[in-house]
What does this fold into?
Amino acid sequence: MQPYYYPPYATPYPQPATSPNLGGVVAAYPPAPLATAQPAPPGLASRPLAPGANRPLLGALAGPAAWQEEVRGVVRELIAHLNSQNAARVATIPLVFDPNPNEINAFAGCDENGAPFVAGTEGLLEAVDAIAQTKATDELFGTQTYGAYMAVVVPRLVSSGGGRAAIPWGVIAPQYGSDPRRVSRAHEIFDEIVAFTFGHELSHHYLGHTGCANGQTVGVGPAIAQLGQLATAILPGLNQPNEIMADTNGCINTLDTGRARAFVAYRWGEEGGLWLLDFFSRIEAASGENPLLGFLRTHPNPGLRIPIVQTVAATWRFRNPL
It folds into this structure.
């Protein structure tokens, strides 16, 4: 992936090197276009945005309501770039947000009536925001805020009392916090991580792993109080082949969508997935054999998933040269 420039500055920030989920809101995806390819919009060049192009600056994502709405938008884009059969199976599946800030998880499942849903917790979105904010700062200013953030948050998250993934005050220096380039880059990274995360969960449904997604009329999803129990209930159903398939298809869906949007916006790649998996790898290493986080209880070892995502992305690029 090529580096990008933010106007009016002339120095590019490089893409990071690859490395070894409120308020009880329930929402459904509106029907998505069943499309497999997206041409460049009329009047635009037929090539993706190149280095030096004026990629639009994005606004801040502040708080659970904004995060949830952003996830909905990302999921709509992902569904629009599935093939027609897979898109039809998941276009009306409800997305449920658990307001628990101390639980970091996302999962796909079936409710007590056998209807499909995808869920994410406020804790997950808080963690994604923290990763995005710190990574953006480091890319633009050469700081080490992601490392500083993890040094504080990992002991907190693996402690017996648990904790939140929120960014501690002072980790991002005040002179960088309001920089519009940093705000915009954090927004882009947030979307890229969300794309991989929820692309993975959507694929569990359209690949038939849950057995309950058949393009049925949209429902409201499970009650918030049920989500913890439902997340625990899916644990016995996890198996490595299904998770590899979900990572593969979620990554491809993200890359396909990124290619289509590259004419007008930041092009999503696999980096969002690698950043998320690095986050959980560090937590798993610190938590030992008894991980406390829901994500680590309901998903395989993140360290084992990193090379899978890297290989899938390399293969996709070989087959889709630009």
